[in-house]
Amino acid sequence: MLIIRFRKILYAFSAVVLAISLFGILAFGFRSGVDFSGGSILEVEFLEERPDISFLEADISALNLAAFRIQPTGDKGLIIRFGDTSNESREILLQTLSAGKDPASVLTERRFDAVGPAIGSELRKNAVISIILVIILILGFVSWAFRHVSKPVASWKYGMVAIIALAHDIAVPAGLFAYLGRFYGAEVDALFVTALLTILGFSVHDTIVVFDRIRENLRKAEGRGEFEDIVGKSLNETFGRSLATSFALFLVLFSLFWLGAGATRYFALTLLVGVVAGTYSSICLASPLLVTWHKFSGKKNI
Q1: pLDDT in tens, 14-70
Q2: Beta pairing partners, 194
């Protein structure tokens, strides 16, 4: 299997991608959305032509709202984020956007979300705990599932390799979001965390499919044959299925990204990048790492 033979090249490629992602995270950080930082988000769509953004900014500045930011969406849409969470501020804002007219005759209010700073902080803490807890549970589950396959690679190593692959799959979309936040104002919110948890589930599922085939082939070999050859054979047998499954999911997510509402576009993009990263790591990273670990343990050429 070429993937096993040229694994060092794949490791180098993965290291470069991870370095770029981690640089973005460390250098730029994340721009917290309303869900985590507290505040309000109002999304509207004008029935006719959208007013000039600079004029709207001047009008809203005169309201003395807490820090606000305007983001145009589509041809007629507008998203406004601001620190105040009161319904009165929302109504004043709608009046301002409507230039004093009846808001219903000028625009359509698509959503209004308001989150207090205490709730936002609690959500941020729970999001981090959820991701860490999921990773620990996955490590425990994979180690338990492969407990009967302890030779030539211990079962817990399957779990550790799966976690390394998951870290790669999380770092790539997280790094992308750091760059998007820095250059395009993308914000991290509850949907982003939901996307990361979904990626964790998809990625480990795809990885376990390959590991499960390795387990079956190890049993059939009954101690005969090189571990490297058995892993390569298992990859050959699961390669087509993994690609077909991921491609079908990719098409669905791409449609959601391209045709979906603006509010879910970054959510779909995160899943898209996560699915690509997860498929890559399941085939080109996780299984080759098992071979490298086995050879390293045997003090052979890795």
Answers
A1: 999 999 999 999 999 888 776 777 778 888 888 888 888 888 888 887 777 666 778
A2: none
CA 224 to each of CA 84, 125, 175, 219, 220: distance values in angstroms, whole numbers, following the listed order: 68, 49, 43, 10, 9
Helix/strand/coil for 38: coil
**In DSSP terms, which residues pair with 60 in a beta bridge?**
none
In the block, residue with structure tokens 């302890």: 150
β-strand partners of 8: none
User: Which residue blocks in the chain are alpha helix, DSSP H?
Assistant: 2-5, 7-28, 34-37, 53-61, 87-97, 103-106, 117-145, 155-184, 190-221, 227-259, 265-281, 287-297
283 contacts 3 by C-beta, under 8 angstroms: yes
Torsion angle of C-alpha atoms 191, 197, 203, 208, degrees rounded to 10: -150
Q: Is there a contact between 84 and 65 (Cβ–Cβ < 8 Å)?
A: yes
| pLDDT tens digits, one per residue of 68-93 | 778 787 788 888 887 776 778 888 88
Give the whole-angstrom CA distance, residue 36 versus residue 187.
10
Dist CA 230 CA 163 (whole Å): 22
DSSP 54-90: HHHHHHHHTTT-SSEEEEEETTTEEEEEES---HHHH
Rounded to two decimals, what is the model's pTM?
0.74
- N- to C-terminal Cα separation, the chain: 16
Structure-block tokens of residue 271? 């899943």
Whole-number Å distance between alpha carbons of 249 and 243? 10
